[in-house]
């Protein structure tokens, strides 16, 4: 061992490498140490700025939503409502009065349907414009157990679309704002308020049973894509009934609103991202959503890029309320979140009570995807044989679900060359190199085909592409114009970006 050390240290190259490694460790340690020291200094500085409790500075208890007890003092009316609600939840409220308040629903849904609704337990995740209107409708319709989950507070800009917030509620948590207002309307309702951010890590607790009762329905009114996908995936995998609201931002036409399976939702960026991420997780249908088919157009609102002034403030990521949350203001017409929320609540009421209603038909294209996968398998076998490889027993790592994902989400059911939507197939775009076959596993003969290698063309376009590019001597530039080449490149980069979610 000592002789190896002496030989290593006597080598000039080894000494340089050792010096570089040690220097890197020292510099890295110094940087981390400096950052830690700066954080500690800032924390101590902040602590030192807090005055000691004394005659001049008094300590008060925080309210249930984390504010100073004197900051949002309840009014006399609020105090009376809270007292009545506490009594009503204990059963000290005449049931005949409740039935009279719900009389119109009772006539519509009949006694059996109303009883189901009154016994229901519904969870609402996201209590902004959509969630607040959905919650208000459910409570007014008779749902007696509501769990509200939202980390956010009411802001001045919330008031154009929030169902229940007032100026007095600005700065308070959305979940408690909704509870306080609805206690004045339906005091018998049991509210389980969670002033928390929903996440995949906390889903088991946040969507847990309430006193042994499973959720009858979960409402997704989240506008953050990561949380939305985590919630829908959890509900789907755990067989919890759920309905999701897609984007109400930049929408203005209430006649274009639909309720249908997520596989049918179109013309909405939030829906597109949600569908794509869920498909990657193995969820391609079976989740009802509220969505708008309204298309953007001249003169219509659209999401604006951040101004140079905002970029000048520093890291854009630091402008958001939380990491990975959007920092741009989405244009929202105040009426549209209300319409989305009411549509969501309406669907939940019909589902719980068993009232007749129909869905938009979902896209039943499984057989088509299986056929396209089989055709792709045959193309790969012919290509391998043409290149001198054994083709018998060759397998491709592409499933029918992968085919559906590429066709629907990446290429939107059209040939990237002609825009046609009939006689479609998938084919390699670039001519493969010698690495077409995976020989890493003995006895297993696989193609190294990847999703980002494929494009969607019509069968006629694919036949010409295979003959002249994949098997012939022509280059892509010889056959296609720069506009098409750029479009394909963008699609491949887009698919490569989404590989990180697989």
Automatic annotation (TrEMBL):
Q: What's a BP term from Gene Ontology annotated to this protein?
A: cyclic threonylcarbamoyladenosine biosynthetic process
Q: Where in the cell is it found?
A: Mitochondrion outer membrane
What residue ranges are annotated as transmembrane? Answer: 12-34
Q: What range does the record give for the signal peptide?
A: none
* GO molecular function list: ATP binding; tRNA threonylcarbamoyladenosine dehydratase; ubiquitin-like modifier activating enzyme activity
Stated membrane topology is: Multi-pass membrane protein
Instruction: Name one matching Pfam family.
Output: ThiF
Superkingdom, taxonomy of origin: Eukaryota
Q: Which InterPro entries match?
A: ThiF/MoeB/HesA, ThiF_NAD_FAD-bd, Ubiquitin-activating_enz
Q: Which cellular component appears as one GO term in the record?
A: mitochondrial outer membrane
Domain THIF-type NAD/FAD binding fold as annotated: residue spans: 104-359
Which keywords does UniProt give here? ATP-binding, Ligase, Membrane, Mitochondrion, Mitochondrion outer membrane, Nucleotide-binding, Transmembrane, Transmembrane helix
Role this protein plays: Catalyzes the ATP-dependent dehydration of threonylcarbamoyladenosine at position 37 (t(6)A37) to form cyclic t(6)A37 (ct(6)A37) in tRNAs that read codons beginning with adenine.
Q: Tell me its family.
A: Belongs to the HesA/MoeB/ThiF family.
Name the chain's protein.
Answer: THIF-type NAD/FAD binding fold domain-containing protein
Native organism is Amniculicola lignicola CBS 123094
